Amino acid sequence: MKSLIRWGTTLGIVGSTVLTTVLGGFIPAFALSEQQIKEKLDAVPVWMITNPQGLPLSRQLPAASDGKKAPVGSVTGVYMSKTEAQAFIKELQAVKNPDPKMAEMLKSLQATAVPLGSIYQQLQQTKNQNERLQFAFKPVDQEIKGAMDLLRASGQDVKQFRSVPVFMVRFAPDKGYVPIQLGQNKQEYFPLFMSKQDALALLNQVKPKFPKADIQVVDVDGVLKTMQDKNDKWLEQVVFFPSPEAREYIRTLSSNNPQQKPNQQPANRPAPKK
């Protein structure tokens, strides 16, 4: 997870420089290669529930009831928060199980960090396979609430948010996105925040000079589709900005155990079933 260690030394709202470049129009898009998209997503750690060998906890997908051929295989959860992944493990372990082997397996479960880019890559590599491991993403509850609050405040009638929310700061609803400078070279990037808290921090820096500045809520699925389908040089400067919890994990990984590298690739074979 070298990319996570590298970003741990450069990412951070505090100390970043807000640029006052205004890009007109709505979000541009460009067709990135699968590898380029993976590298951007590698900056974001996510957590899977695994056994000590790194095999993810999964459940078998049911066969289609109408007799039609449908993808089969298993599905596993992908958590945007280590805290929420660990909370689910505790729930599973609190349930009394009469099967000694199952009870022992549950005791060994752990939250294992994986780069989001590795999951994206595996999805791309196995998308045409019937028997494949699929991933059910578990957004942070607080971020879902924050996204829905912003959407409702903008006048949208939102009942639920089905994807992982991403927050982008704009100079105004009809203007472009706010770039920042990161790293020693002060390179210009356009952040896609995984946390509303970070987007608000940038918004507060911009508001005094651009009073109409706001936060736009998008979803990670739409962002990835845009990257895959369109062609615009601008999005080469887009970066995914991990949540505060994720950045703390990256800093810990980098400073306390620089040789440690969490799983580079989620296992793509049957694993412990729940």
TrEMBL record:
Short name of one Pfam family: Tic22
Position of the signal peptide: none
Region (Disordered): 253-274
Top-level taxon: Bacteria
GO biological-process terms attached to the record: protein transport
Extent of Low complexity compositional bias: 256-274
PANTHER family: PROTEIN TIC 22, CHLOROPLASTIC
Name listed for the protein in its UniProt record: Tic22 family protein
UniProt organism field: Dulcicalothrix desertica PCC 7102
